[in-house]
């Protein structure tokens, strides 16, 4: 079983198919650091390899989700000493990693690798989120936000630009005009407006995390893990493909699915009128 031990700035727990990853610097509203990023990626990779995990939920300890980059890092940046820290836009995997080719180039950057994880990732935004914390959430598959919380891109009010793929992903979620509004103004919006824009789905603050974990568990127990993984890759690959390439890929994936155990189980549980017992194979 993959290891979830030895973390200092995050915490993890696996329960009934759901791995909950908690950003764990509550005294700093879970502000992002280089150490947190390394632990975050290690935990995601462990969950990806763990056959007992079908979904990942990311949340924050205490009253915040992630307040953005740690202010000590931003202050260092004003002195020209921020290279290599939590604000640097290095490819995921580090400088020594082999350069990916083809579509995989798009999944090699900070946070974009989340799109390639073949398990759904739910951002459970329990409190304020800003800057790099929001960028991370943009690359999760689903964003749920507790009612009455605040969200901001923050960059323009710090003299910065749309970092970490935000200028690419945000328009694809909320549309061009809304993305320009949120990025250029860096204004703060509440959960209800974020939901109207299609950026998040709102849920009551009471019992918020348990509700998101329940959704993740329900969805991934009712559907084939293999199908979920293939569909996720189809959708994100499709952002970089033309229709012809996407269609050909779907046809090939459909033929391959006929030979899977999950296809056999999908037909069997329907005909037998019972709950599915998918294996992901």
TrEMBL record:
InterPro entries: ClpP/crotonase-like_dom_sf (IPR029045), Enoyl-CoA_hydra/iso (IPR001753). It holds the Pfam family ECH_1. Gene3D superfamilies: 2-enoyl-CoA Hydratase, Chain A, domain 1. GO terms for molecular function: catalytic activity. SUPFAM superfamilies: ClpP/crotonase (SSF52096). This is Enoyl-CoA hydratase/carnithine racemase.
């Amino acid at each position: 079983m993959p290891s979830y031990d030895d973390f200092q700035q995050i915490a993890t727990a696996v329960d009934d198919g759901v791995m909950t990853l908690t950003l764990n610097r509550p005294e700093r509203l879970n502000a992002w650091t280089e150490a947190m990023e390394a632990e975050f990626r290690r935990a995601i990779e462990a969950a990806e390899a763990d056959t007992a995990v079908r979904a990942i939920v990311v949340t924050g300890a205490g009253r915040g989700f992630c307040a953005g980059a740690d202010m000590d890092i931003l202050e260092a940046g004003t002195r020209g000493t921020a290279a290599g820290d939590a604000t640097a836009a290095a490819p995921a995997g580090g400088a020594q990693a082999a350069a990916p080719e083809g579509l995989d180039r798009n999944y090699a950057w900070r946070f974009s690798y989340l799109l390639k994880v073949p398990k759904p990732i739910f951002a459970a935004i329990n409190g304020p989120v800003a800057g790099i914390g929001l960028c991370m959430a943009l690359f999760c598959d689903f964003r749920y936000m507790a009612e009455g919380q605040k969200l901001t891109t923050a960059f323009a009010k710090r003299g910065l630009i749309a970092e970490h793929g935000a200028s690419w992903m945000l328009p694809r979620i909320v549309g061009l005009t809304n993305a320009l509004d949120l990025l250029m103004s860096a204004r703060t919006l509440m959960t209800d407006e974020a939901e109207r824009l299609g950026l998040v789905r709102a849920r009551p603050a009471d019992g918020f995390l348990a509700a998101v974990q329940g959704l993740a568990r329900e969805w991934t127990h009712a559907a084939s893990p293999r199908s979920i993984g293939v569909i996720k890759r189809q959708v994100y690959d499709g952002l970089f493909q033309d229709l012809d390439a996407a269609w050909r890929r779907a046809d090939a994936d459909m033929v391959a699915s006929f030979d899977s155990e999950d296809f056999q189980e999908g037909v069997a549980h329907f005909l037998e009128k019972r709950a599915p017992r998918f294996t992901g194979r």
